[in-house]
Amino acid sequence: MSLIYSAKRFFSLVAGILLFSTAFASGHESGEKKEFNVGEMIMHHIKDAHEWHLWGGEHGGKTIYLPIILIDGGVKTFSSSHFYHGEPATGHDHKTNEEVHYVKGVGPAAGYAMFHEKIYKLENGELSFEDGHAHAEKPLDFSITKNVLSLFMGAILILVLMSIVARFYKKNGPVAPKGLAKYLEVLIVMVRDDIAKANIGEHKYKKYVPYLLTIFFFIFINNLLGLVPFLPGGANLTGNITVTLFLAVCTLLVTLFSANKNYWLHIFAMPGVPKPLLLIMIPIEIVGIFTKPFALMVRLFANMSAGHIIVLALISIIFINQNMAWGGLSVPMALFISVLELLVAFLQGFLFAMLSALFIGAAVEEAHH
């Protein structure tokens, strides 16, 4: 299975190179002498967007335009194509004295502008800038972005997979698993025994298994879906710090609401510690409550973003040197990192669930006498 998947990854990388080269070549054919900007290209592919670009050039390729949903004196909905095919405009940065390019919306998006994938309200038909940042009022944006759509796709996929497995056991009882169940049962048992039971305790782990299974499969499956962010169907969901922040906050809330008297006693009145020293220890312990989920958030965000950036940077070597011969070096290196990312995709889900179980286990642990 691993060899087959590696082969698929290899051809995906080759396809990605061809897609890049098509877009790159089209710019030269149209007479556009524009230098290839690696940083801009990478950020374009790993950040969130209001469109899902599939292939081809920026304006002539295939793109799914996602719905814009704004609350500004009422609910306003329209397609993001009214921004991406809007009116190009130039603003003046009052601090750096540089020109800044943005897009004014047209049609139902008139009166709004998009700058770095953020939507602003125009003031007197213009957008003002200072130090590279737009200074204008923002409407409440509840748009279905690429990461939101990817989140829905991942959630639906998890529900479908788990429903199939649950239906199998409901129908057949505790028998040897077949089909999809024989692949997922290994992971489910691993989370139950090696993560929940091992870190929370044999008497209290059962009620936390559903939560730990949810975050493990959510992270694992979305990591796999986002392994190739520059191909159709890929989005950098777990490399979005908003998503990892939400997951970390969920673990924090489960930990705090599960905490018993012994846990809080070790925070505010540590046994055996002189009372004057508590003035120093209590603030440190309180900070420690929040640094643990912060570490969860940053670990997942940084690892998944780094993998995408490295693969894209390696592929960019071809276009920096403007020679396909460099593919003999960059493609094998990118393939190696991509295969390594398969391991990272699993490890990040495992570590997030394991550390969550560890924090919960410390919160529910009874006092030792």
Helix and strand topology:
Blueprint: H1 2-29, H2 38-46, E1 51-55, E2 62-65, E3 67-71, E4 75-79, H3 81-84, E5 87-92, E6 99-104, E7 112-115, E8 118-121, E9 129-130, E10 133-134, E11 140-141, H4 146-172, H5 180-200, H6 209-225, H7 241-258, H8 261-268, H9 275-321, H10 327-364
Antiparallel strand pairs: 1-2, 3-4, 3-11, 5-6, 6-7, 7-8, 9-10
Helix pairs in contact: 1-10, 2-9, 4-5, 4-6, 5-6, 5-10, 6-10, 7-9, 7-10, 9-10
Main attributes of the structure:
3-stranded antiparallel β-sheet; alpha+beta; 2 domains
Describe this structure in words.
Helix 4 packs across helix 5 (180-200) and helix 4 (146-172) crosses helix 6. This protein is α+β, with helices and mostly antiparallel strands. The strands form 4 sheets. It has a 4-stranded antiparallel β-sheet, with no helix packed on it. Strands 4-3-11 form a 3-stranded antiparallel β-sheet. It has a two-stranded antiparallel ribbon with strand order 1-2. The chain is built from 10 helices and 11 strands. The termini are far apart. It has 2 domains: 75-141, no CATH class; 146-364, no CATH class. The radius of gyration is 25 Å and the shape is globular. Residues 1-11, 17-32 and 229-233 have low confidence and may be disordered.
